[in-house]
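Our consortium's second objective concerns turning raw sequence data into structural hypotheses that experimental partners can test. To show how far this objective has progressed, the report includes one record in full. It was chosen at random from the queue rather than selected for favorable results. The single chain below, 644 residues long, was entered without modification.
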Amino acid sequence: MNKLKYILSTLIIGLGAASCTDMLDDNVNPDKSHAITVDTGLPVVVFYAQQATYDHAEYYIYLSQCLTTTGKSAVGSYSYKSEWEFLTMNRHPQWRRHFYDIGTNVNTLIGNAEVAQSPNYTLIGRTVRLLSTQLAVDMFGDMPLTNAYKSNSPTYDTEATVYDWMFQEIESLLAAYENKEITECPTNLVIDAKQDRLYAGDLEKWKGLVYAIKARLLLRNIPNIDTSAAKCQEIIEAADAAIKQWRKGDLLYGAWFGNEPSYKFDGGTNEQNCVWSASQPIINSWESRKNLLDGAVPSKFFVVNCLGLNNVGTANEGKFAANSSNSFESYANDPRLPLLMIPRSGPETDKDVKVRYLENNIGVGTTLNKTDYFPNLYMGAYAGNNDCYNPIFTMEELYFIKAEATYWKGDKVGACALVKEATQYNIQRHLDFFQAYHGEGAEVYPGAATTTGVGVMTATSDVTAKDKWDAQVNAFMNNEEFYTLDRRGKKVVRVRPVTERGNERWFFEPNSFDLEALMTQKYIAMYMQPEQWTDMRRYHYSNKRNNYGIGAKNEIVYTALRRPYNLYAAYWIDGLTDTEKENLWVQRVPQDPDTEGKYNRSELERLGAFNNYKWLQKPLIWAQEPGVVTSLTAGSELPEGFVQ
């Protein structure tokens, strides 16, 4: 594995004197982890923290019906983006990432930190392990915890047991971060940016991530377990604690984004490049899945129903400013569309259409059988360049967590205000990248796509480019029109309110604010983030077709959502009524079929998970029918005093 050692050693900022052999040991067994030492271990653990976030998001962006492909596979090696067959897939990198690359390496790091009497390393390692555990249990469900690492065939613990441990670990970590005998221990080794690419060893910033994970986990109570005012307040307080913590001290990313944990790449060779970028980095050729955004297509649900593509069903669909010659409306109601993707032309017979989409897994005919006819998805703050960043947790998510709890507490106006603020800054996040993409200090705004791709807004004799952009954002955020006066003093509308175009939805009207408005905006803000699919599962994929109403008012959350076409019939279609089909969605990913089928088949059989498609359909504890589960930790079998 000499290639891997080189990749990871060159990845870290200014690693300098650390050699390849210092970074990772040889590893000839793909089912064993890379061994590390205390001084070289932390860079690897932090790298894998962001990699784990990407691994989950890469699956979830398809499972949440945000992206699709031009194919309509019946059975394939990428079941999560096509037919949901899953059982013939080989490895899921998320399993390895948690148990091997993070789990074993963190255990080694903690052991070495104890020998070095440097508990600051231990705190960071435990925090990364907590994050990794949360990601893993919310993807796979039951998994080894209390007997992990004791054999190749450890027993599996229930989700409730894992959640019980996570909540206990959170409180233990928060107490440790408050303990100056630990944080200011005189034997603590110095941690700088060479070792900790996120925070350069700043434990106050790492403490914010613990609060954030706590808020995320508590949110799992909504809407199926506990929506009481007391539980909602607990969620709000956890989110507030994280927000406050990340806005203390020296701020890495400005007053609003504060110190959210974002892993910044430098660009260069393979893993030096951003995981979502067009360079498509992959660890050692097999240990991760490269992003395949060059073969991905935005879904109809994402582009039409969420972003509000203009002129759908007309000859002007997918064209820029097609309302009239005086208009400078963009492609969609939501100004983020050209910030998240680069509109581009289709075939010569219809080259004026710049934004195309597909229903999930429906496939295409011969006239549109090239991905190049669809928007280029290598754009936005996370994917636009090799030196972009991968956020491990965003400030927007904290605001949406708080907004959701506020909504369920009965304060719709307050929830609306939080969602509006988070959306405003999510727009700004991607605009900042767009402007940086065009050069340092460039004050440019997205306009009509050009033959070379990215287009910028141009000024006219009466309106600046910035005013045009501001008018689009104002129409989206405040449902206000923008107009000018002609030479006769007659009003000429240049940007219509969003209720008169696109999806005809103003998402930020306080008095009519609802779950659909809240969760649609969170869905967009969680683009390329793991929570996008988690939210859909929590809300039972609620849509008009399955008519699954949420809460006392039976609210439909994702109105236009629909199941993918061409699903694997034996699992998802055969013998089912239409109602059963519409309510049957993938709920989890099977435990890694290669390592677990090889070493731990008896445990999979005990769970009913071995080679069983019905395991895919079993909701996790926080996605059960309301009232079935009374607590995230109900039935926990966590041994008293257990320490991982």
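The partners drew two points from this record. The first strand starts at residue 67 and ends at 69. Residues 293-356+368-513 form one domain. Both points have been shared with the crystallography group to help prioritize constructs.
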